[in-house]
Amino acid sequence: MNPGTPILEAPVAQGARDQHMILNMGPQHPSMHGVLRLVVEIDGEIVVRLYPEIGYLHTGIEKTCEAKFYQQVVPLTDRLDYLSPMANNLCYCLAIEQLLSLEIPEKAQWMRVLLAELTRLNSHLIWLGTHAMDIGALTVFLYTFREREEILRIFEGLAGQRMMTSYFRIGGLSMEPPLDFFDRVQGFIKTFPEKIDEYSNLLTGNPIFKGRLKGVGILSAADAIALGVTGPNMRGSGVDFDLRRDMPYSSYEKFQFKVPIATAGDCWARYEIRLIEMRESVKIIQQALDGMPAGPIKADAPKIVLPDREKMKTQMEALIHHFKIVTEGFAVPAGEVYQGIESPRGQMGYYVVSDGTAKPYRVHFRNPSFATLQALETMCKGRMLADVVAVVGSIDIVLGEIDR
Amino acid sequence: MPEPKTFIGKTAVLEGLAEHPAVRAILAWKPEALLDAKFDRGELTLTIAAEQIRAAAATVQAAGYNFFEDVTAVDWFPSSPRFQLSYHIVSHSHKERIRLRVMLDGAAPAVDSITPVWPSANFYEREVFDLFGIAFEGHPNLCRIMMPDDWQGHPLRKDYPVEGYR
């Protein structure tokens, strides 16, 4: 079950030298979602072994973090899983706040939940569009990107950026949301369930889509746990675990939502789970909009959180704090913390070690796609080569967070 | 928010958290393998003797800590012991996370691989091998994963130069 030994040269399977062939898929291949290279040993069209070769996007983000102030790491986290930046921001900020024992105002926590769920919709929409496109249903891509565009516009109004938002701050959020923010989100989620029905109409009854996904890429519950698969992929295999519900963070315990489970463990189960997850996210966003508490969006910690612009211009104290935070950062008590959240792709965990200075001593990102990739061989073995494309699409990986 | 309790040191943890399932399992298995312990910021850290890590992993797995999340290293250069390995394991039934810690010396650091217990440790151990140069004995495919195969050095070590020509 171990994710294989390298098969870069000739086939190693005994006596198979003549029939088996080594095939390279990627790193430049339209179905590989970035720069993933799969070395596949095939017997005719049947996959015998499969070996993922990664590292083409490795930029040493973890090393870079060690040279930055704590706050300066937030924009770096955007670039890990670039399809769900707010989830990365949230995980990192929660970890540092845990180290600082900082209490976050309720409004900021609820805003974070709202944004994390919007991010989940954003990420799942891209997944659905590209996955369907891999299978050959090109139309769905245009539909999902229509809705994604609206989410990105909301993000742009919020943070000034469409994708790399960096909107979260250690201690809260960077600024108050714009006046029309809540109305726009409300308008969006009001119509969004119909849009999910629309995608479902295009795909769920589609015999080609069904035929390509049903019974393909089966992963059992035991294999999912043994190989470190998390998130919708794990729940598609029948493991009932969701960090939002089971180990809540950022006041998720105050929201009511269902965690969808499927037992088949095939690509179709993963597709269905994500469609239901989108509907549940809409419910969470609605609850966040209805019950959004009043109050500040930043913690009351003048030595950590930048002061308001107005205060900075009128109060000497605030100006000093601003100058100190920008030039010297802030010291974080020594210790280590591992913060896990449920990102759109599964369990994300940031491990931060502090030595008491203003820069993190060590930051490690546990990203869900990295572990999910280990299960690829188990899912593809014994299937046709064309199924590899369906499986890679269905596990929803992002190479930015795999290679880091 | 009530301030979570903090226990620093093996005796404090053994007194304060005697009923914790992971602590109980380790004590029932081999108390002398537990070198140090702390409970800080709501997280339990158990320091395990390096040569016992695979058996310790199997022990906590049997105690209900069924899901291996990740393993990574911290380089405490120039102090000694130099390397710290942190294993994060989450329990689906206890809904809780523990950290197993192993300290290693700087010269030719090596430790048993836990891939026989959790195959998902495969990529994570390769990553630590690649970026820190710590060998995992019994690993099925210990080779570089992020850096090119012919790369010299281990970039996440603290004595690896961060600027200039190589």
Task: Please give a structural write-up.
The complex is a heterodimer of chains A (404) and B (166). Chain A is of the alpha+beta class and 404 residues long. Chain A has one domain (71-299, 339-403): Cytochrome-c3 Hydrogenase, chain B, CATH 1.10.645.10. Chain A has 17 helices and eight strands. Chain A has a three-stranded antiparallel β-sheet with strand order 1-2-3. In chain A, strands 6-7-8 form a three-stranded antiparallel β-sheet. In chain A, helix 5 packs antiparallel against helix 6 (181-203). The two termini of chain A are 26 Å apart. The model of chain A is unreliable at 1-5 and 7-11 (pLDDT under 50). Chain B has one domain (7-137): 2-Layer Sandwich (Beta Polymerase, domain 2), CATH 3.30.460. Chain B contains four helices and eight strands, in the order βααββαββββαβ. In chain B, a hairpin with a 7-residue loop joins strand 4 and strand 5. In chain B, helix 2 crosses helix 3. The radius of gyration of chain B is 17 Å and the shape is globular. Classes of the chains: A alpha+beta (404), B alpha/beta (166). At the A-B interface, strand 6, strand 7 and strand 8 of A face strand 4, strand 5, strand 6 and helix 4 of B.
